[in-house]
Amino acid sequence: MRFKLKIWRQSGPDAKGGFKVYDIDGVIPEMSFLEMLDHLNESLVKRGEEPVAFDSDCREGICGTCGLVINGMAHGSRQDCTTCELRMRHYKDGATLTIEPWRARAFPIIKDLVVDRTAFDRIMQKGGFISTNAGSAPDANAILIPKEIQEQAMDSAACIGCGACVAACPNASASLFVAAKISHLGLLPQGQPERDTRALDMIQQMDAEGFGNCSNHGECEAVCPKGISILNIARMRRDYMGAARRERPPRSGGD
Questions:
Q1: In whole angstroms, what is the distance from residue 226 CA to residue 218 CA?
Q2: pLDDT at 249 over 70
Q3: Residues 6+ apart with CB under 8 A from 75
Q4: Phi, psi dihedral angles at 198 (to 5 degrees)
Q5: What does the longest C-alpha to C-alpha distance in the chain come to?
Q6: pLDDT tops 50 at residue 84
Q7: CA quadruple 24, 26, 27, 31: dihedral sign
Q8: Average per-residue pLDDT in the chain?
Q9: What value does the mean pLDDT take over residues 121-126?
Q10: How far apart are CA 39 and CA 5, in angstroms?
């Protein structure tokens, strides 16, 4: 297979970037999208040119490291699929593929297709955990949790923190990511003691990082490779409003 690739090239955070066109052939249909980029980089190195920088790690759709905007869609056009899980057989031979990094103020470009997503780490540090040292894992079913709640918590915990929700949102909102992290702990008994502070602190940090507000476009859910539902955002808002009322009770009488 052969393709024409329009790839965003940018030498550094403060450098001016732009698209550069590459023609590539010898692509095997079974190659993953990232293997195709490896193939391109091998040819660039042989020609003495700078290879294209991009993120990857597990290449199994688990770690959330990879992330590209392909033909205008975060992770490409296949539903519930990360960039590394894409196969070149999903594209027509001879097609033109436009490849860009995540676009968001809170995700500054480091080089080419690599962006700085440490804003997510700082949000997690504000409350994406349970701080009680409860020892080793308890026996199964020691704490009885309704099956519906278990499934909701596990669905939320499936978030891999790739940032596709931010890249797809017209407001560059991180609400789906933060909501998933708040929900999967807040639904379980172990997460109840810190439920209020978790919602308040993580949302405050999300705003401080410069992410936009959610306006219910639903683009985040559409591109999420793990199918995280925007119902989590509604749950996060309820948690936040409840926590804010309990932290600052309304005045009795007056303004």
A1: 14
A2: no
A3: 67, 68, 81, 82, 83, 86, 162, 164, 223, 225
A4: -60, -50
A5: 76
A6: yes
A7: negative
A8: 93
A9: 96
A10: 12
Instruction: Give the CA dihedral 184, 189, 192, 198, nearest 10 degrees.
Output: -20
Residue from 221, 248, 252, 253 nearest 234 by CA: 221
| 216: its two tokens | 């219910």
CA distance 182 to 47: 48
**Amino acid 136: pLDDT:** 80
Q: Give φ, ψ of 8 to 5 degrees.
A: -70, 125
Q: What are phi and psi of 216, to 5 degrees?
A: 60, 40
Q: Which two tokens stand for residue 215?
A: 């306006």
Determine the pLDDT at residue 80: 95
The pLDDT assigned to 73 comes to: 97
More confident residue, 108 or 250: 108
Q: Which of 233, 239, 223 lies closest to 179 in space, CA to CA?
A: 233
Residue found by looking up tokens 């869609």 in the block? 73
HEC string of 35-91 equals HHHHHHHHHHHHCCCCCCCCCCCCCCCCCCCCCCEECCEECCCCCCCCHHHCEHHHC
164 and 67 Cβ atoms separated by less than 8 Å: yes
What does the alpha-carbon distance between residue 98 and residue 112 come to, in Å, rounded to a whole number? 13
Are the CB atoms for 212 and 171 separated by under 8 Å? yes
Query: If you search the block for the tokens 């890249």, which residue do you land on?
Result: 167
pLDDT digits (tens, 9 = 90+) for 157-190: 999 999 999 999 999 999 999 999 999 999 999 8
